[in-house]
Every structure is written in structure tokens, then in C-alpha cells.
């Protein structure tokens, strides 16, 4: 596949100084590929994948906080839409490890995930917030967003629990969002240097909805109030849900059934 990448991806090219050759990707026909598969629950949708390639040949000059110049690897970020596999709930995308071209691009990382397809099921004007994301790093570079929490050998299989989190913000411009509350905040971060297959299965517990409401007045002691699925209410200074509490409520409920 000379590059299903160049045909199906939308490339956002970074202008790299000091390198006048063609910056385009051109993976060899025999380049190894990494397959990313997402199992998408009915109420969710697969998000567009953000794929990062880096080059040690096509570099550019950046500046640190003191204004001192330093050399950085060149990079390209591509968008790739995962494709549904037949009538299944599996969505898949393939990406070449060797990006080829004059710059000898190499796959660095991929960001992907799931989101609510129809946020308004939780109320009028509700928008999707965050959560349900995964970042996988395939080299030794630090990603531009998120961080790495786990390092794995070989292929990567991820199965995580999530809960609907409906949040109202009253200060400033009013907004109401629904997010996926999980073990991480927005992204689960992994380093998988030798992976050739990445599988992600989010398990959404739709019957255990968490609600939160921010304070109407900004002053000391006014915190966001969280109402958990069992009716318990906490306003203890947290800005994100207590995932362990959500898990404990669900498991206790399920054990009684």
C-alpha cells in the first residue's frame, strides 16, 4: 500500500527551516504497519486519529524560555479516519512505521479515542467535553500533549471502564457538557516501542451517570458539587470525578443484583 496514508489522510505540514527538499511522506511499499483497532460502544463514535511523524534530517530552529535557539526534529501531523469493519463495532486504521520521503520520516505517536455521538441525549445544548482518549508513543520522543503513564512490551491491548459525566458551568459563559469519566483525565498514555497492533475497548456504564455543577459565585469555599450515581454529594475541592468512588458504587450495585 504505497500510501493509503497519502490518499486517506489529510496532512497538516509544518514549515521546516533549513531543509529545502520535499517534505512529503512516501512510505516504501514494504514498510511495516501498525494497526489500531477501536471497539466502539453503540452510543459513542470513533474520533479522528492524530498521527505524528518525525524526522531527524529535516530539522528546524526553535527557542527556549530564555530566547536561546535550539534544533528540533521536524514533524508532520496527519489526520486519519478509522474505518468500520463490515457491520461490526470495530473501527480500524493502519499507519506505516517508515514514512519514507527525502526526510526519512518515522512514526512517532498516535492519538485516538471515542466520544458521544449525540451529546444532546443528555439535554438540550449539551456538547461533548473530554475523556475517552488514548495516546500511544512508538519512539523515545516526548509527545506534544498528554504524557506517558504506562510502558508495555509488544502489542498493546487496552480495556477501560468509563462513566457518563454531565457537568454544568455557571461562572462566565454558561455551558453544559457530557464527558467520559475514566481512570485518566483526558488521555491514557502508553509507550509501546515494539507494538504492531493496538486494540482499545472502552466499556461505558451508561446506567451510572455522574452529575456536577460549578459554583455560581466565585469565592473561597465555593467548590464544584458532584452528585454520584448512588445519590451521594461531594463538594470537597475536586475538579474531576473520583473514579474509584464511581467503580465502588457500580460494583456494590451489581453485587446486589
* Unreliable residue runs: 1-19
Radius of gyration: 21 Å
**What coarse outline follows from CA principal-axis ratios?**
globular
Round the mean pLDDT to the nearest integer and report it: 89
**What is the percent of helical residues?**
under 10%
Number of separate helices: 2
List the quaternary state of the chains.
Answer: single chain
Number of domains: 1
- Secondary-structure element string: HEEEEEEEEEEEEEEEEEEEH
In terms of DSSP E residues, the strand content is over 45%
Largest sheet: 10 strands, mixed
How many runs of DSSP E, i.e. beta strands? 19
Derived structural class:
mainly beta
| Separation, N- and C-terminal Cα atoms | 51 Å
Describe this structure in words.
- This protein is mainly β.
- It has one domain (4-256).
- It is built from two helices and 19 strands.
- It has helices at 4-8, 243-256, and strands at 10-13, 33-39, 44-46, 49-63, 69-80, 83-84, 90-96, 98-100, 105-116, 127-128, 133-137, 150-151, 156-169, 175-181, 187-191, 197-204, 210-213, 225-227, 233-234.
- Strands 2, 6, 7, 10, 13, 14, 16, 17, 18 and 19 form a ten-stranded mixed sheet that branches. Strands 1, 3, 4, 5, 8, 9, 11, 12 and 15 form a nine-stranded mixed sheet that branches.
Compact overview of the structure:
With 257 residues, this protein is mostly beta strands. The protein has helices at 4-8, 243-256; strands at residues 10-13, 33-39, 44-46, 49-63, 69-80, 83-84, 90-96, 98-100, 105-116, 127-128, 133-137, 150-151, 156-169, 175-181, 187-191, 197-204, 210-213, 225-227, 233-234.
Amino acid at each position: 500500500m504505497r500510501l493509503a496514508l497519502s490518499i486517506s489522510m489529510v496532512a497538516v505540514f509544518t514549515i521546516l527551516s533549513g531543509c529545502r527538499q520535499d517534505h512529503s511522506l512516501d512510505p516504501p511499499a514494504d514498510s511495516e504497519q501498525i494497526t489500531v483497532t477501536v471497539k466502539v460502544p453503540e452510543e459513542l463514535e470513533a474520533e479522528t486519529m492524530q498521527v505524528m511523524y518525525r524526522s531527524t534530517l529535516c530539522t528546524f530552529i526553535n527557542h527556549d524560555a530564555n530566547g536561546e535557539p535550539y534544533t528540533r526534529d521536524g514533524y508532520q501531523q496527519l489526520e486519519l479516519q478509522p474505518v468500520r469493519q463490515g457491520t461490526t463495532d470495530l473501527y480500524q486504521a493502519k499507519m506505516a512505521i517508515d514514512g519514507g520521503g527525502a526526510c526519512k520520516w518515522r512514526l512517532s505517536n498516535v492519538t485516538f479515542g471515542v466520544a458521544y455521538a449525540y451529546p444532546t441525549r443528555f439535554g438540550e445544548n449539551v456538547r461533548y467535553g473530554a475523556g475517552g482518549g488514548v495516546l500511544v508513543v512508538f519512539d523515545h520522543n516526548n509527545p506534544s500533549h498528554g504524557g506517558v503513564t504506562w510502558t508495555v512490551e509488544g502489542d498493546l491491548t487496552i480495556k477501560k471502564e468509563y462513566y457518563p459525566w454531565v457537568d454544568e458551568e455557571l461562572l462566565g459563559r454558561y455551558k453544559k457538557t457530557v464527558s467520559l469519566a475514566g481512570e485518566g483525565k483526558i488521555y491514557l498514555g502508553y509507550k509501546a516501542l515494539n507494538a504492531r497492533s493496538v486494540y482499545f475497548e472502552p466499556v461505558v456504564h451508561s446506567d451510572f451517570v455522574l452529575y456536577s455543577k460549578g459554583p455560581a459565585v466565585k469565592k473561597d469555599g465555593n467548590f464544584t458539587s458532584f452528585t454520584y450515581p448512588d445519590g451521594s454529594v461531594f463538594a470537597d475541592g475536586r475538579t474531576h470525578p473520583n473514579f474509584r468512588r464511581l467503580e465502588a458504587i457500580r460494583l456494590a450495585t451489581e453485587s446486589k443484583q
